[in-house]
Amino acid sequence: QKEVEQNSGPLSVPEGAIASLNCTYSDRGSQSFFWYRQYSGKSPELIMSIYSNGDKEDGRFTAQLNKASQYVSLLIRDSQPSDSATYLCVLDRGKLQFGAGTQVVVTP
Amino acid sequence: GAVVSQHPSRVICKSGTSVKIECRSLDFQATTMFWYRQFPKQSLMLMATSNEGSKATYEQGVEKDKFLINHASLTLSTLTVTSAHPEDSSFYICSAHRADQPQHFGDGTRLSIL
């Protein structure tokens, strides 16, 4: 079992719709969770960080964490073509543990 | 603006050349810097952890004599790929870290060895 699991996609989302990305992890001791966005040929950029159970909202992005279910998700509201990228679910255990990434394609 | 600067952004050189990549944290003192490598359509793979003033810690399978890391100050780490060969062609990315903060990545260096 991989330490961080994500559906690789591609996830096709119509412009203006909500993109829902899911991530599960195996280490129950994980405390710090991040979503990074990576455009093709570029390095990852931090979108959201979340450390406690529940929801965290930042603009069009909402991260959700459920430690009991070992589940992290990211919602992107009002998806725009510029949101087309690979989204990485990442855990910090001293070293970052990366999911394989979910490719999101927002279609006009 | 960028908090981590990486230079150069792209290098094309002949096989056997040594290539140095610099990573600078611009607005904070990074206790730790990390070096990653990313091959096409794969996720980032940690190569080594660099702590200022001490030897880098390399991940299993990464040759420390081939990938030389120097962390001379709290704002600068360098990765030197020695005697590079075509199989070393990859996207190299650094990140800077301070306690209790997410890692910030540099813009990456695309290395192409001919």
Question: Your description of this structure?
Answer:
The complex is a heterodimer of chains A (108) and B (114). By secondary structure, chain A is an all-beta fold. Chain A contains no helices and 11 strands. In chain A, strand 9 (85-92) and strand 10 form a beta hairpin. With 114 residues, chain B is mostly beta strands. Helix content of chain B is 0%, strand content 52%. Chain B has no helices and 11 strands. Classes of the chains: A mainly beta (108), B mainly beta (114). The A-B interface holds A 32, 34, 36, 41-46, 49, 88, 92, 95-96, 98-101 and B 6, 34, 43-44, 46, 49, 91, 93, 95, 102-108, 110.
Molecular shape of chain B:
globular
Q: Could you give the count of β-strands of chain A?
A: 11
Order of helices and strands of chain B: EEEEEEEEEEE
CA-CA gap between termini of chain A: 36 Å
For the largest interface in this structure, which chains are involved and how many residues does each contribute? A-B, 18 and 17 residues
Question: What would you say about this model in short?
Answer:
With 108 residues, chain A is mainly β. Chain A contains no helices and 11 strands. In chain A, a hairpin with a 6-residue loop joins strand 4 and strand 5.
Descriptive labels:
heterodimer, A: 108 residues, mainly beta, 6-stranded mixed beta sheet, 0% helix, B: 114 residues, 7-stranded mixed beta sheet, 4-stranded antiparallel beta sheet
List the helices and strands and how they pair.
The complex is a heterodimer of chains A (108) and B (114).
Chain A: E1 4-6, E2 11-14, E3 19-25, E4 32-38, E5 45-50, E6 54-58, E7 61-66, E8 71-76, E9 85-92, E10 96-98, E11 102-107
Parallel strand pairs in A: 2-11
Antiparallel strand pairs in A: 1-3, 3-8, 4-5, 4-9, 6-7, 7-8, 9-10, 9-11
Chain B: E1 4-7, E2 10-13, E3 19-25, E4 32-38, E5 45-51, E6 57-58, E7 67-73, E8 76-81, E9 90-97, E10 104-105, E11 109-113
Parallel strand pairs in B: 2-11
Antiparallel strand pairs in B: 1-3, 3-8, 4-5, 4-9, 5-6, 7-8, 9-10, 9-11
